Each structure stands twice: as structure tokens, then as C-alpha cells.
Amino acid sequence: MGIISTILGVFGFGIGIGIGVVIGYFLFIYSQPTDVKDPEMRPLLEKDSKSLEQLLPEIPFWIKNPDYERMDWLNKFIEYMWPSLDKAICKMVKSIAGPIIAEQIPKYKVDSVDFETLTLGCLPPTFQGSTNRTDVADRRYQSKAHIDVIAVLPRCHFLDPLARMAMTRMKVYNTEEKELIMELGLKWAANPNILVAAKAFGLRATVQVVDLQVFACPRITLKPLVPTFPCFANIHVSLMEKPHVDFGVKLLGADAMSIPGVYRLVQELIKDQVANMYLWPKRLEVQIMDPSKAMKKPVGILNVKVVKAMKLKKKDLLGASDPYVKLRLRDDNLPSKKTTVKHKNLNPEWNEEFTFVIKDPETQVLELDVYDWEQVGTHDKMGLNIVELKNLTPEEPKTLTLDLLKNLNPNDAQNEKSRGQMVVEVNYKPFKDHQMPTNVEDADDAVQKAPEGTPDGGGLLVIIVHEAQDLEGKNHTNPSVRLLFRGEERKTKVVKKNRDPRWAEEFQFTLDEPPTNDRVHVEVISTSKRMGLLHPKETLGYVDIYLSDVVSNKRINERYHLIDSKNGRLQIEMQWRTAG
């Protein structure tokens, strides 16, 4: 019977294989249609309206929404830079962790702890959209399993091109402050090799970290923005939700994560610890530049009194001059300050006082130019001179008699000719330590105190005209801003042929009392000097700003919609500085 059973078994096995091959052929090969063709592709312009409507949900957010930006460039940049970034990051980790480890190991009687191998692998992190992971999944894959797959695959290769394109975006927030806020998704499936060896009691133990996966939604803030490369001083990073961190750990060559309960315990522990440190509103701050070099903050006040001028040269045909003095700090974007005009006077006396905010007394220079006022045409320069602030003694008033020069070239023979003299009084008053901002952000956001000499109960009203957008002129667009406050008028410079001008000019008003019930009239004007124009000046819009909020809040920075303008907007910052 045994032989017969064996023969029948072999015979049945052969028959089964034959039948299976035949059935498989008919099911998987023979039944496949032979007339399969590639789908017809047509240009987008040839599609009908119904087909286009079906494609609208698939359009990437960076096309539909101006708040989202493409990030292909960023991922490509990181991919090219990753070999160098890997070495730099590992070097920084060793330099930071080394002293900490050296300080802690004596407590545990460990001889040494060293990084035998430290590399983050050859796969760089990928930045993707932070809020669109589920909406792409909901549109294409309704099951929870597919959503989970999207959450763990870093590059989502199984998605069609439209889905991948939609995910490669980040959201950018626009604010009126000097900062840039970005929200994005970080997905990193890495192949690191981190091997740490510890020696104690003559024994050696190793811990190895492999197969790292990180998924997080960080908010990155670059602030403050400064006019020095790389154009921001600090990086602030906050996590908008708890991150997912997964990795493998080999202890003495064995997989420690395979121990029951260890994997989930480590996962929850890492999430909680990272969330406690960096989950919004908590943040990680990384200083990129020295605050003092990134943004020069005010360190003092320079009081200047223009007393008089003597023996000025005649500039007018009738044998006289109409002199006035223009004062400005070099390397400063603030507008110049002027004295009044003394008509037909070669020995004018002004006795007018001015105040300047000093940021770097070692390099800043006060320039004084004497001009002859002309009713028509350009004003003639009568002479100039400078005062180097580094030569002034703090808190010590000084009276200077300056010879007027043609220019500042010491080798120019024309400077030997007499052009008159000017008498000025200067006094540099540095801020006290408790008055100075402690860091670059405080210098940018905090409201400074009014300078000494401000009336009791009063203060200093500071108006900074930053920029305008979408200005529209009927005949020309050469905008400038005119400020009218308590009958006093101030103007910015003219920006020619620009619908989105930037001024960044500051104006100061010293007041005896808080302007609680006052308002500032701000008007944007376009002017043209072309001969024959019927409309040499026109108004591009205006706004009246009440100052009660400025007094109560000390500082406001808003973008105002201009009245009598279709889309024009003007950004103005106002501060109320008091002596107390």
C-alpha cells in the first residue's frame, strides 16, 4: 500500500501542477485584452469646460493661494549642500556634546564615552507642505490606510505628479514687523550611523542608532531682518504639533527596540520631551549674527546748536546771500535737518537746536553744509565742514568754530581760500546702561525713552514712513509723503516712477503734552518737474491717523488704506517716547 500511495501522490501532484498552469494562463495571460492603448493626451487648451472644472481641485495651492510658495528650490539646495551640511552638523554635535559628556561621566564612574562613528547618512531631509498632507490624501485615497502611508513616506513616490506637486509647498505669513514667518513640513527618512562607545571597569559597550525617520511641522521665523548678509539675525523654530521620531537602536549589536514595550515607551518619551521644549508657543532660538553687528541700536543723543556764521561770501548778484545750514549724519538714511533762511545776511545768527540719535559714535560723522537759498533753480553751496563724533567727550558741551571748505579733499588747493566760518555747540550724551536694549530684538521692538531736555509731562512723537503699495497716478507716479501735525509740515524724499516706493524716513516732534486728542494728516503726493504739464502735482491718497492709540500703546505699526485711492496702502510706524 505504501508504494501505491506514493505513486498516486506523485501522479496527483503532477496533474495538479498541470491544471494550475492551464488555469493561470487563462486567468492572467489569455484573458488580458490585446487592444490596450495609451490614453490620448491633449493640450490643456483643447479640453472642454467640464474637463477643466474636474481638474480644478488638483491645482496646487501655490497657484490658487498667494500665501503658499513652492519649495522645490529649497529641497534641491539642501540636496546639493547635504554632504557639507552633514559634516558641519556632526562637528557641531561633537563640540556641544563633548563638554557635557565630560562633565557627567564622573558621576556614573564611567571612564570614557566617545563617538566612534557619527554621520547622518547620504539622504537629506525633505521640506513639504505642512497643512496639505490630509487634503491630498482625502481627495485621492479615502481609506485611513492610505492616509497613514502618506504620513510616513517622505517623498510620496506612489502619488501622481499633481499630488506630489501639491505637497511641495510652504505657507508664508506676511506681517508688518521686520520678520519672515514660514510654516512647512519636515520629512526625513535617513540612514545615519551613530555609534557611541562607553568604557567602564575595563569593559566596553556600544550603542548604535540607525534607520532614523523624523516627521514634524515646524514654524520658522527669521527675525529681525537686517541690511547685512544673510539679512536676518536670529532663527526661531517652534513645532506646531508633536513630532514623530522613529529610529533603531542596537545595544551590544542586538536590536533593543524589539523588546516588548520598549518601542512605544521610547516613542512617547521622545514626543513628550521634544514637545515640552519646542511645542508652540515655546521655541528654539538660534543666533546667526552678533546683535551689535546685525543691527546698530541707538547708544546716545547728539545735541547740536547752530549758533552763527561769519564772513560768508556773496553769492547773489546784488551783493548779498540768503544762507541756511543743512545738518545730517553720514551713513544714516534719515533726512537732513535745516535751519531757517537768513535773507541778505553774510553774518547770520540762528541759535537753533537739533537732536540726532547716535548708533556708532566711533564712525559716525556730523556734516554741516551752508547753502545760499534761491527762489528759482538749485541752491548754491557756500561751504561745508564735518564734526567727527569720536573726538567728542561724552557729557561735555563743546563750542567749535569751523572753517568752511569747498570739499573734504585735504589736497585740494581751493580749500585754502577763505569761505567764512561757522560756530556750533555740540554735546554727546550716551544712554545709560539701563536705558539701552539688551538684545537686537529689544532694540527693534522696544520704544526708546525721550532724550534729555524733553518737557515734563511731554514726550517725543516719532513717525516713521516705511513704504507704500499699489499707488496709482492719473498723469504720473513720483510719490512722496507729506505729514501735517499741529500746523507743522514734514516731507519725505520723492521716489521717481514707482508705484511701490520705500522711504524708511523718520520724523520727530517734541511735544509739551501727550497728543491724546490730536491726529496726523498723511498725504501721498506725486510731483513732476516736466515743463508744460497741466498737472505738475496730484494727490495719490491720504489718511488721518488719530494718536490716542499711539499714546496708550506706545508703539503702533500699521498698513493704512489710502482714501481717494483704489488700492493704495501706506505703512507707517509711530512711537510715543516719554522721559519716564
Automatic annotation (TrEMBL):
Residues 67-289 form the SMP-LTD domain. One of its GO terms (molecular function) is metal ion binding. Its main location: membrane. It is found in: Membrane. It comes from the Eukaryota. It is a single-pass membrane protein. CDD domains: C2 (cd00030), SMP_SYT (cd21677). One of its GO terms (biological process) is lipid transport. The chain crosses the membrane at residues 7-30. Residues 280-402, 443-560 form the C2 domain. One of its GO terms (cellular component) is endoplasmic reticulum. Keywords: Calcium, Lipid transport, Lipid-binding, Membrane, Metal-binding, Repeat, Transmembrane, Transmembrane helix, Transport. Belongs to the synaptotagmin family. This is Uncharacterized protein. It comes from Salvia splendens.
